[in-house]
Design a protein that fits this description.
It is built from 9 helices and 20 strands. By secondary structure, it is of the alpha+beta class. The chain has 2 domains: about 160 residues, P-loop containing nucleotide triphosphate hydrolases (Rossmann fold, 3-Layer(aba) Sandwich); about 120 residues, Nucleic acid-binding proteins (OB fold (Dihydrolipoamide Acetyltransferase, E2P)). Strands 6-7-8-3-9-10 form a 6-stranded mixed beta sheet, sandwiched between helices. A 5-stranded antiparallel beta sheet has the order 13-12-11-14-20. A 5-stranded antiparallel beta sheet has the order 15-19-16-17-18, with no helix packed on it. A hairpin with a 2-residue loop joins strand 11 and strand 12. The longest helix has 18 residues. The chain is globular, with a radius of gyration of 25 Å. The structure holds adenosine-5'-triphosphate and magnesium ion. Keywords: ATP-binding, Cell inner membrane, Cell membrane, Membrane, Nucleotide-binding, Translocase, Transport. The complex is composed of two ATP-binding proteins (PotA), two transmembrane proteins (PotB and PotC) and a solute-binding protein (PotD).
Length: about 375
């Protein structure tokens, strides 16, 4: 797996202007009556990419997958796969397979028969079919369970049967709609890594829908954050987290502090914002906003330092506050700190040592501070 990890790190076809997307949604809209479920959406996905669609319930994730699989037709726009417009191609003729949100296995059929189902329907010769099913059982490590029925399996095993069934026909693209939704946390995490291994071993393109951001961050090369039928940002997990392109994404992914304030100085890459509660924020900006406008500044809790004494330059990016709440989470501790104006700041620190001499306590007066490049300016 080590070497594959290295390949993975070098995988970034979206940064190459000459790379052709494998799947392209071009201005795709889907209306149900007068409700718009997918709204003029354009998106490129590359060959062998592990792509995640992330967004709140009802934002159009399943609808997007269903259109790619051919179960729904776009109201307008085009979906291109490997250079071919998919309009008019029925689902069974698309090199795409979908693992559904509720992966219904056939309860009266054995694991083996469940996996063979699609192949049999396609009229695959018996020998070939047996060989393929054996291969699939091995792939998902269920060889010993071949003759069991689904109700004799654990949730995780059932999930692997569904996966084997959707991979048996060797689709070029596998669409997974909340594939791990039914699993408990531990099994979910294990299976995430199994899925990543499988995807790399088979060299397939995966599009996975999830509303679990940690899952998307773990598995995906890139994530599309969706809201109300539109893609709000498409980027790598790291970019989405560290450089959200708007308030919605900053707030949706991970924990964040957002300060709203007025721009007092702007120019030459640095912006100063004055926030209620006396805090002055200085930060870099690629596009400097006009002086006097109201902007937001987003900063993650782990980028905020908590100290007993004032930092060296306490006139910017620092404020005095009071510890209001302490949440010990094992690996880290989260502090809720109340600033004089009443705003709460969340700051987290890693518990790298098993015990700390003289730890912070409730009601203690502390300083919060952060670096100039610790957060991002929000445009809206
Ligand atoms: N056949 C349909 N007829 C009418 N409305 C539909 C139909 N299918 C989906 N919708 C609506 O379209 C919107 C998007 O649905 P979709 O299933 O794509 O959401 P989702 O992002 O997958 O949500 P979840 O995370 O809950 O699965 C929802 O508001 C849903 O009610
Ligand atoms: Mg859905």
């Amino acid at each position: 797996m080590k070497s594959l990890g290295n390949i993975r790190r070098a995988f970034a076809p979206w940064t190459d202007p000459s790379a052709k997307p494998f799947i392209a949604f071009k201005n795709v809209t889907k209306r149900f009556g007068n409700f718009t479920a997918v709204d003029d959406l354009s998106l490129n996905i590359y060959h062998r990419e592990f792509f995640a669609l992330l967004g709140a319930s009802g934002c159009g994730k399943s609808t997007l997958l269903r259109m790619l699989a051919g179960f729904e037709q776009p109201s307008s726009g085009e979906i291109i796969l490997d250079g071919t417009d998919l309009a008019g191609t029925p689902p069974y003729k698309r090199p795409v397979n979908m693992m559904f949100q509720s992966y219904a296995l056939f309860p009266h059929m054995t694991v083996e028969k469940n996996i063979a189902f699609g192949l049999k329907q396609d009229g695959m010769p018996k020998d070939e079919m047996v060989e393929r099913v054996t291969q699939m059982l091995k792939l998902v490590k269920l060889e010993q369970f071949a003759s069991r029925k689904p109700n004799q399996l654990s949730g995780g095993q059932r999930q692997r049967v569904a996966l084997a069934r959707s991979l048996a026909k060797r689709p070029k693209v596998l669409l997974l709609d909340e594939p791990l939704g039914a699993l408990d946390k531990k099994l979910r995490e294990e299976t995430q890594f199994e899925l990543m291994d499988l995807q790399q071993t088979l060299g397939l393109t995966f599009v996975v829908v999830t509303h679990d951001q940690e899952e998307a961050m773990t598995m995906a090369d890139r994530i599309a954050v969706m809201s109300h039928g539109q893609v709000v940002q498409v980027a790598t997990p790291g970019e989405i987290y560290e450089a959200p392109n708007c308030r919605f994404v900053a707030d949706f992914i991970g924990d964040v502090n957002i300060f709203d304030g007025k721009v007092t100085t702007s120019g030459s890459g640095a912006v100063e914002i004055s926030v209620e509660s006396g805090l002055t924020i200085r930060t870099g900006a690629t596009e400097a906003p006009a002086t006097g406008t109201t902007v937001g500044f987003a900063i993650r809790p782990e980028k905020i330092r908590v100290t007993r004494t004032a930092p060296a330059n306490a006139s910017v990016n620092a404020a005095k506050g009071e510890i209001w709440d302490i949440a010990y989470l094992g690996d880290m501790t989260v502090f809720h700190i109340k600033l004089p104006g009443g705003k709460f700041v969340r700051a987290s620190s890693l518990n790298a040592q098993r015990s700390v001499e003289d730890p912070f306590t409730y009601d203690q007066e502390v300083w919060v501070s952060f670096d100039e490049n610790g957060g991002v300016l929000l445009k809206d």
